[in-house]
Amino acid sequence: GITRHYTFNIEYLNVTRLCHTRPILSVNGKFPGPPLVAREGDRVLVKVVNHVSNNVTIHWHGIRQITSGWADGPAYVTQCPIQSNQSYTYNFTITGQRGTLLWHAHISWLRATIYGPIIILPKHKVPYPFEKPHKEIPIIFGEWFNVDPEAVISQALQTGGGPNVSDAYTINGLPGPFYNCSSNKDTLKLKVKAGKTYLLRIINAALNEELFFSIANHTLVVVEADASYTKPFETHTILIAPGQTTNVLLKTKPKSPNATFLMAVRPYFTGSGTFDNSTAGAILQYTHPSHKPTPQNLPLLQPTLPPINATDFVTKFTAKFKSLGNDKFPSKVPKMVDKKFFFTVGLGTSPCPKNTTCQGPTNNTKFAASVNNISFALPHSLSLIQAYYSKRSNGVFKTDFPSVPINPFNYTGTPPNNTLVTNDTKLVVLNFNTSVQVVLQGTSILGAESHPLHLHGYDFFVVGQGFGNYDENKDPEKFNLVDPVQRNTAGVPAAGWIAIRFQADNPGVWFMHCHLDIHTSWGLIMAWLVLDGPEPNQKLQPPPSDLPKC
Ligand code: C2O
């Protein structure tokens, strides 16, 4: 591989959407941000220079960061934030991965506008395991707020209530034709030729919503998820959670039709709170041969999307994902496990601070979220990885995160009376190369909701999934240990569970959290501390000299 140098200047950019103009935080004055393009095996250096007043970090979501945990990006986990007028160079090598991922800010809600695609091409002369596309097109979904998203989250945390929802979804930064005050400029037009195959690299960078996506009168063939190849399958609609990526092949019609086609995005939502129930749109437009007049006023055909709470569709769709698992890309699912964990994931409450009134779910409480009833509290004077590496963990974090819930209850039945969570900073310590199984059990406290869980530093295998309470005696019999999908983000179904496995072969401190930003803000997080292995290439590299200080 070669070394690729990027500079990401964090700077203000005035953006107008839905007739509201506001200065947003951007990378290099682009919204969405510029794509990071590299090949498998390349080393990537990204110098991030902070020209704004907010503290910033960038996370390279889904990049394995093998022994380079200092470059992972979550604030106070693997680094202190880059302060105003400071810079930090993220330095990592892309090993054993190719496909679509995303980069995004990983502090507070700055991801609302600081995000962009990561495109990892296969090594030179290595073909895709599917038809070579005529063209590749990144499609990135986001959420637009007419006000500053930082004000939205700080208000929610102060009052303890649910946050204000976004005003629009966006496709490549544009909301499309269905909003009041959208102009022609606000709609993405994707021009395609007839009789070709396109590779759409679809990314969900939205803050808080899982999204359905469909193109009128066209079929999509899924070929990759989270930068791992899948067995190809056809679908009219995809579901994509924040943090997930899905590559699909789009075969265009053999002849340019006399119509245009809507590409629509709208949420999948099972919770009980409020959400942005709007639809973003873009237009797929065929180019017509130059010797013919371009037809005018073509009709716009609309796709049929599943209903907002279509859990049935989602369950069937999710079950179709299987890893490619051929000779070239064999499945590396751990067949045996050394350590088993059972984590509840869901919402809860925390007490309202004295002398304040809170707008939480019950009288004088605040919304909170937890893993095994512990709501994760980030340190502020030192990052977790620095605390570990400099042997100053004492007082910064504890290592007794419970491997099973301390007070078990009927997770998907009537919730217990006491839904209060505890706040703490606890990690699970894993020896190098431990094979791990985690059952993530959704809870029905304050309403069942699906949670897209994301693991840093690893891809994991989704070996099982179900509804209700996980049954240790029966459910493992049905686990797929042949070709389970390999991902970095997977949805824990509402009032259900998933079982994941990974091989802890990457030393460092690795965040695992719900990728709905509001749930991260409320503490639906835990972290793994994976110890160094015996060999030199199994140890965390020394910290870079320009690592930011708190
Ligand atoms: Cu894409 Cu910890 O996040």
How does the SSE layout of this entry go?
Layout: E1 3-17, E2 20-27, E3 36-39, E4 43-50, E5 58-61, E6 87-93, E7 99-105, E8 115-121, E9 135-144, H1 149-159, E10 168-171, E11 188-192, E12 197-204, E13 210-215, E14 220-225, E15 228-235, E16 237-240, E17 245-251, E18 260-268, E19 280-286, E20 300-301, H2 311-319, E21 339-351, E22 365-371, E23 374-376, H3 384-389, E24 422-424, E25 427-430, E26 434-442, E27 451-455, E28 460-467, E29 486-487, E30 489-492, E31 496-504, E32 508-514, H4 517-521, E33 525-530
Parallel strand pairs: 1-4, 3-8, 9-12, 11-19, 18-20, 21-26, 23-24, 25-33
Antiparallel strand pairs: 1-2, 4-6, 5-7, 7-8, 9-10, 12-17, 13-16, 13-18, 14-15, 14-17, 18-19, 21-22, 26-31, 27-30, 27-32, 28-29, 28-31, 32-33
Bound molecules: CU-O-CU linkage.
EC number: 1.10.3.2
Pfam families: Cu-oxidase, Cu-oxidase_2, Cu-oxidase_3
Catalytic activity: 4 hydroquinone + O2 = 4 benzosemiquinone + 2 H2O
